[in-house]
Amino acid sequence: MKELPHAYVCIMAGGSGERFWPMSRQRTPKHLLKLFSHRTLVEETVRRVERVVPRANVFVLTNTVQLAATRAALAELLPPEQIIAEPAKRDTAAAAALATGLVRARDPKAVMALLPADAFIRDAAAFATQLRTGLTHAAQSSSLLTFAVKPTHPATGFGYLEVGDLVAGGHGFRRVVRFVEKPNAAAAARYLELGTFAWNAGMFMWSTAAFLAEAERHAPALAAFIREFPDGDPSSFLALRFPTLEPQVSVDYAIMEKAAAVETMLAEFDWDDVGLWTALPAHLPADAAGNTHRGHVVSTAGAANNIAVSNGRVIALVGVNDLVVVETPDAILVCHRDKVGDIKQLMPHLPKEVL
Question: Residues 281-295: pLDDT tens digits?
């Protein structure tokens, strides 16, 4: 694009495939599911960002287990070389370094966004407008930038940002006072009441120069990885160097919380991280009894407030309330709505062929 000649987007597409079992598996986690349309979540993400940057400037970061399925899901959108597998399991700090190194090696003047593959956003036009604004600001600033989401309820499953004053000439960005870890219920209620806290949506923007400068100060191993990242095929470099990066370290902890200047813009688009099966009713139609159906599902008048997803066989609900029922060819989940957060506890007990 003429107005953003050095803009890139990197999309993080990993996950363990636990929370949306039995549809999600280790090889096909949430971003590879078609939960709300005929497109996977990662495909929807790529289509949103191509409103702002050309497809040639979009990269998807996944892992070796999910590489084939991710490339297949995006075969009509991106060539295989733009879908890159991390050769070892690492957290978002390593992913951010990989993304920044990859983009910087191609364009030393680059600005970039680092986005999750599995967020659900309906208002693609509003998202594109704000993404373009963010990348424009990143090109003119040494700050690291984020999108924040105004809380709608006292959520305990998200990290928060304390949001400060508007930045002069900052395209609507505000200063981030501090990052806050996932709070307990009382703290989350207080944050909602105060109105100066927002959810940390894990969507970032920066110039590669700005991120590298912060890494030099706070994470020298990440900085060296970024500086030495090769132009061209990075496979050999990744195989040798990526596993040496520290595991289980988030980009928030390694860089963002320590950076000299972090700014955020409140999202004007809808956003849902679709973390559990109970997220579906907000985005799919329900019948008069509050049952959310997808696929071939029938229910009697005595069934209410259920979530039922069929992937082939008929699901029939009779006189049951508040259940989640998900059918796949080789497994069936029956779970109370209040216990969907415990689905991952099933994993050690399931046969490996359904993981």
Answer: 999 989 999 999 999
